[in-house]
Write a structure and sequence with these properties.
138 residues, alpha+beta, four-stranded mixed beta sheet
């Protein structure tokens, strides 16, 4: 029986849609997901969590575009806990965003944060097929 390396698909997804050199493809994916027609890939600011920064935790692709924090994951294995994992990624990304932008979350003014948009692309054969998973189900 052959051993399958599931990271190959993750790395391919990250390469295609999460690298500076492929911004056009990232923008095309964003437009497809959101039904938009944005044309300037230079507006994308990648925020992907790397394993070296948060030991044991990394996400596939995340970026800020038009004040929306887009967090895209690709899964080939069905996982009903993706909303919980996405919440954890979002928390780490907001922490990083707050630090990078020197926002004071303890002050008397609201720290303006990008709106989160969490999407998981599932291309496996097990599970429910097209289905919206909710954090409230956890």
């Amino acid at each position: 029986m052959a051993i399958i390396n599931k990271e190959h698909k993750d790395r391919l997804f990250s390469f295609l849609f999460g690298s500076e050199s492929n911004r056009e493809w990232t923008l095309s994916l964003y437009n497809g997901v959101n039904g938009t027609r944005y044309e300037n890939p230079e507006d994308i600011r990648f925020t992907t969590i790397e394993n070296a920064v948060y030991m044991g935790m990394k996400n596939d692709v995340s970026f800020v575009l038009f004040y929306v924090m887009n967090i895209y994951e690709q899964q080939s294995t069905y996982n009903p806990n993706m909303p919980v994992r996405q919440l954890m990624y979002a928390g780490k990304l907001y922490d990083k965003y707050i630090q990078m932008n020197n926002l004071n979350i303890y002050g008397k003014r609201i720290a303006r944060l990008p709106l989160p948009k969490l999407v998981t692309f599932y291309n496996g054969t097990e599970g429910e097929g097209d289905k919206i998973l909710h954090l409230s189900d956890a």
